[in-house]
Amino acid sequence: MEKKYQVSVVRQREMTVQETVRKAVDLIGGLKKFVQPGQRVLLKPNYTGLLVPGSGAVTSLEVQEAVVLLLQEMGVTDITIGDGCGTAHIGTTRIFEETGVKAMADRLNVKTIDLNLDRMVEKSDPRFREIDKVKVAQTMYDVDLVINLPVIKTHAMTNATCASKNLKGAIAPNEKRRFHKILLHQAIADMLCVMPPVLTIVDGLVAQEGLGPAEGTPVPLGIIMAGENTLAVDGVALNIMEMPLEDVKHLCCAVEMGLGSCDLKDIELLGDDIAEIRRPFRPATSDIKEFPGVEIYTENACCGCISTLMIALGRMNAIGDLPKFKDLQVCVGTTLPEDVVFKNMCFIGRCTRTLYNKTSQEADKADKVHLICEGCAPCALEVEEGIRAVYNIDRSDPNFCFASAESIEKP
Ligand code: SF4
Prior knowledge:
- Helix 12 (353-360) links the parallel strand 15 (344-348) and strand 16 (369-373).
- It contains 13 helices and 16 strands.
- Helix 1 packs across helix 2 (61-73) and helix 8 (184-193) crosses helix 10.
- Strands 1, 2, 3, 4, 7, 8, 9, 10, 11 and 12 form a 10-stranded mixed sheet that branches. The protein has a 4-stranded parallel sheet with strand order 13-14-15-16. It has a two-stranded antiparallel sheet with strand order 5-6.
- It has helices at 17-27, 61-73, 92-98, 101-107, 139-142, 163-166, 173-179, 184-193, 230-241, 249-256, 303-318, 353-360, 380-391; strands at residues 5-11, 40-45, 78-83, 111-114, 120-123, 134-137, 145-149, 151-155, 159-161, 198-209, 217-227, 267-271, 295-297, 328-331, 344-348, 369-373.
- The structure holds iron/sulfur cluster.
- Iron/sulfur cluster binds next to helix 11.
């Protein structure tokens, strides 16, 4: 290819966050290349849930404020911060209030919006392979510029998430859930076809490894990245995480569809040497645990279902409910040991469909097997709700959520 995608990577070192963000954006042409005074801008941070900035799970307030101040400095005053949080039962409005986003926005005279509650516009594209249409928040198209503000994380269902997947927050809540009932990776790639052009500024001050996108471990990386092509930005993020592209299927699908490149040979890297930043990120699957009283069968399952199951059981355990689920058995993947004694077998994920069909036809097992969900990969909330429905046990604390920021060292 002739023209390379520009991606900047800037280490914070002794600079302020604002200086670091400014330098990263200036290296790819400066904000004036993307927006003019008087135009409207939407900032799209990553708000996975009620998670404390600093956990590496959500975009920091400092980076959002730095971008707002840089925009205001050049005469852009119509600024909105918006996300459509995947934990819709908590709600983006409450998340913005409890994590400090709303207070910061008020102080800076900036609007906020819950994209889940926005008017939705239906989009389709002839390049779609898994979906035929998708509903996206209207505000994404009403503004003159969307600034995508993701973080760098390992992810239970997609192995890694950064620029491209963060845009999934802009689709309708029922679409977010639908994507987990079909081929998630291709659906995300399809969705990217109809997203407006975005400027991505990655908050890599604190990243996250392990059981992301919410319950992982903070990684103080101390960088800001910027770029126009989301796949190129993701390609550099993967390189920093030492994660091969083939492990991140939604990016493979998007590259195959011609939406950009994750290959460093197609990318003009600007700023600091990423060799000094690169370090292996511990994958989500490394956090597989055992839960007393629960039989877990994972043969031939991939990280999507295994990690999702870990998150779901982890939440049920943390809330104190798991011991109530007597004789709970869960199966992800394609096989079960021949000598397994069926008690209350919950099948999770598309791969278990054949096993469920077979066992549900057998008289001695029919009332002991349950097909919880068939997503590939399903979402953790759906898995938890499905298991709870089998036992008819509600959450003992309906407001329970993770807010597990650990104290971290400054890079
Ligand atoms: S359904 Fe199968 S392929 Fe899909 S995430 Fe689960 S184990 Fe992996």
